Amino acid sequence: MARKVSTQRKLVMSAIAWTLGIVIFFPILWTFLTSFKTEGEAVATPPSLFFFHWTTENYAEVQSRSDYFLHFMNSVTISLGSTILGLLIAIPAAWAMAFAPTKRTKDVLMWMLSTKMMPPVGALIPIYLLFRDGGLLDTRIGLVSVLTLINLPIIVWMLYTYFKEIPGEILEAARMDGASLAKEIIYVLTPMAVPGIASTLLLNVILAWNEAFWTLNLTTSNAAPLTAFIASYSSPEGLFYAKLSAASTMAIAPILILGWFSQKQLVRGLTFGAVK
Amino acid sequence: MGSITLRNVSKVFGEAKVIPSIDLDINDGEFVVFVGPSGCGKSTLLRLIAGLEDVSGGDIIIDGQNATDAAPAKRGLAMVFQSYALYPHMSVRSNIAFPLKMAGIDKAEIDRKVADAARVLNLTDYLERKPRQLSGGQRQRVAIGRAIVRQPSAFLFDEPLSNLDAALRVNMRLEISELHQQLKTTMIYVTHDQVEAMTMADKIVVLNRGNIEQVGSPLDLYRKPANLFVAGFIGSPRMNLITGAYAEAKGGKTVGIRPEHIGLSKDAGTWEGTVTVAEHLGSDTFMHVDVPGVGLLAARAGGEFGVRHGDRVYLTPDESKLHRFDDKGLAL
């Protein structure tokens, strides 16, 4: 059912859409541009958008002051590690909830989601003490485990929704064909749910990559990911805007590129089941 | 070998007693059809035999072994589902090979068995395709192929033809019957379609509200229905059931007469009535006749018997084919 749309209406709509798009994108663009300015130009009023002395010295400076590669590897380890560990726990959990539900399954799902509604700072002291006494402060293992636990509700929820779409008869057929529970999950359920698992994986890598509260509070240097690397350039004194921008650009670039190339998968994942 | 015995088998879902208690013997090599209206428990009974549901009470004995608590795969049964339940991410070859792979059979043996099954089912040219690239009938054959490679002691079919169109259904019905002739393996087949039941079965089990109403060969059920439910369920159009003065005169609370056992005439007969609907099928004419004092009766005449709505006709029941039932609905 095509509706007739006047040219004028199209123009107005396009203008609104472009404005909104630019407003949303502007902070990222501004960060990117600032990272190529000198510290003086970065704070100059009025600021110049494009016509300044382009320089890459901030990047060199940031690289010489701190080890970008170490933080990058920490981010990769923590986001991938917590997501994969989360998936290993969540796949059997979501299988049980989707295919062997009990009267309380819905309540358990709601309870898991409710943990995401609590402000994380409420749990900071006990978790900090546990980490200190367990020798987990500033370790990758500590961060992987805490981020796994924090994102687990989302992983279970997403997988549960995908698994619900898979007809139970196919799993029963596998059972009749002699598959054990583990083989049923490995050979039948998981391959059928690959699109869903992939988008869950992508979304949670992004969430874990950007997670700043726990990573900032539980690390100092060794296990610090890129979020901590950015934060180390945020200072109340001195001129650090350009260097902060350079650090931010370096931190968000990898995940932005990943998101760009996987956007189709992400959109499919987030709208899965909305239409048949 | 594939004999299956059910002893006091019951199934309860929460408050609902789906199957109160069932005893049934299925002999090796038999083609048994479970038939009944929807919600009668026939699919549940099949799933209990398969092991996909746990029984609430009673025993299931397969080949003399008590299999009540055995896992589905340990029962030596193969199942064909209504939705086919093929593995969508695997090729036809991998689908058929899956149960063999799970059984840990070596690669060369698997290849040989898959090739054999594919040849029997005309699937040789489709082995590399994915299920979504196949027609409904081909998918059904893949599902059957996946069942036969295991050489099970019995096949379980859960309404396997209900997703196919009418023409294909007739074909597949014949193919399954032929397969049974070739393999001579026990088959249990669930359907709500009495034509499938009548044409395929050695033995029909008529189920109603979780109880067995009657067990017998198709013609037994047609000729000697044990009660009013079976009388009304088997046969198309349904048997005419008459109560009142005529029934009592013939010695029953209710008497039944099949539409094909009523003689028709335009001149004279036992009952006089008015045609309300006449269905001309070419070979046959089914008439619904309103007879005052008896009720609305269905009768079958030859294709050349020309009548129309509102015509006056005379009906004469063949009294040797009358079925008599007592006040509990049981056959006398």
Q: What structural class do the secondary elements of chain B suggest? A: alpha+beta
Sheet bearing the most strands of chain A, described? Answer: none
Question: Do you know the CATH architecture of the largest domain in chain B?
Answer: 3-Layer(aba) Sandwich
Work out the helix count of chain A.
14
Q: For this structure, what is the CATH class of the largest domain in chain B?
A: Alpha Beta
CATH level-two architecture of the largest domain in chain A: Orthogonal Bundle
Strand content of chain B: 25-35%
CATH fold group of the largest domain in chain B: Rossmann fold
Largest interface here, residues on each chain?
Answer: A-B, 17 and 22 residues
What is the helix fraction of residues of chain B, given as a range?
25-40%
Low-confidence stretches of chain B: none
**Mean pLDDT across all residues of chain A, rounded?**
86
- Terminal residue distance of chain A: 19 Å
Q: By helix and strand content of chain A, what is the structural category?
A: mainly alpha
Assembly type of the shown chains?
A: heterodimer
Domain module tally of chain A? 2
